[in-house]
Amino acid sequence: MSNTISRIQLSVFDPDTNEMAEELQQVQQKLFQQVQDTIFHHQSVGCVIDLLLEQIENADLHMSLKDLRQQLTPQMHRLATEHSQLTVKLGETQSFLTQLMRDSKNLDDQINRIRTLSLTDELTGLANRRSFLQRLENEVERAQRYGHSLSVALIDLDHFKQVNDQFGHGSGDEVLRRIATNILSAFRHSDLVSRYGGEEFAVLMPNTDLNGAIQSLCNTKTIVGNTGWMYQDRQLPMPTFSVGLALYQTGEMPENLIERADNALYRAKRLGRNRLEVDTTYGSSTKLMEPVISS
User: Fold this and answer.
1) Which run of H or of E encompasses 281?
2) Is 274 left (phi over 0), alpha (psi -120 to 50) or beta?
3) From CA 228, how far away is CA 225, in angstroms rounded?
4) What pLDDT digit, counting tens, does each position of 85-95 carry?
5) Do 154 and 244 contact (CB within 8 A), yes or no?
6) Do the beta carbons of residue 244 and residue 261 sit within 8 Å?
7) What confidence score (pLDDT) does residue 233 get?
8) Is 122 annotated in the active site?
9) Using only C-alpha atoms, what is the Rg of the chain?
10) From 57, 92, 122, 199, active-site residue
């Protein structure tokens, strides 16, 4: 129960979860009191039974049945009353237990929903920036430990502001959703595609060298280029995009890897957009510097 309450306290930013937590704590307190009362009544029943047994054992063998009945009847009535009260308390305790189990499940479902929302971009359904950065730290540690390759790409839509200005933000949202679906379909389940912010997406590709990452990004360009989006019964082409790509280097911190991919993205924008640029910080990357995605 203490673990459940701890998880509750971590979710205080959600009003619904807060209210559920307070209700659950109230039920917990009531259940505790019910258990205490039930134990007390159980002990009372035990005392009455012990008293009856003692009276029966100490009864005079020559006592008449009438006298024995008169002596034992009050205790039997008391025992029946205590047993009835114990039955009621046990029923109430069972009811509280059932309610507690139901509320605990509802609270767990709510916490799981909040956890999912905290790691998911509401518009596109992709992982959000927070989720990406958490996974990036894990993959960097894994690459460092086992020597696996790791590629990171930042994708930014070209001239996306024009879509919002010309067709409205609702259309811009639709384009982002379509782009997100197309980008996601070009990568493996083991890769992580996230909405990094605005019209920018980030892709984490574990166990992927530079050539493999470039091939996946070229596939993405083809898929996006072959789809469009609808505006007032017209099918319009998807915006092009620019990409900055960086390959993890041994001992590198996650933030440095992101910074290198971002610098490569900036260079792709500066050189005319609709192209891929690979980070040139390390010599191993300079051999594959041709702009693979170009207009």
Assistant:
1) none
2) left
3) 8
4) 766 776 777 77
5) yes
6) yes
7) 86
8) no
9) 34
10) 199
130-145 residue pLDDT tens: 999 999 999 999 999 9
27, 100 in Cβ contact below 8 A? Answer: yes
For residues 275 and 255, is the Cβ–Cβ distance under 8 A? no
Backbone angles phi, psi at 46, to 5 degrees: -60, -40
- The class of domain 129-286 in CATH terms is alpha beta
Q: How far is CA 200 from CA 128, 205, 279, in A?
A: 11, 17, 18
Compute the average pLDDT of residues 76-83. Answer: 66
Question: The tokens of 114 are what?
Answer: 């909040």
The enclosing H or E element of 115 equals helix 65-118
Largest CA distance in the chain: 116
What order of strands is seen across the sheet that includes strand 200-206?
A: 192-197, 200-206, 150-157, 241-247, 276-278
Domain ranges across the chain: 2-118, 129-286
| Residue in this structure with the two tokens 């900036």, named with its chain if needed | 266
Q: Which of 123, 128, 258 is nearest to 179 (CA)?
A: 123
pLDDT at 250 > cutoff 60: yes
Q: Is residue 262 within 8 Å of 243, Cβ to Cβ?
A: no
pLDDT in tens, 102-129: 766 665 666 556 565 578 999 999 999 9
Identify the DSSP state of 60: -
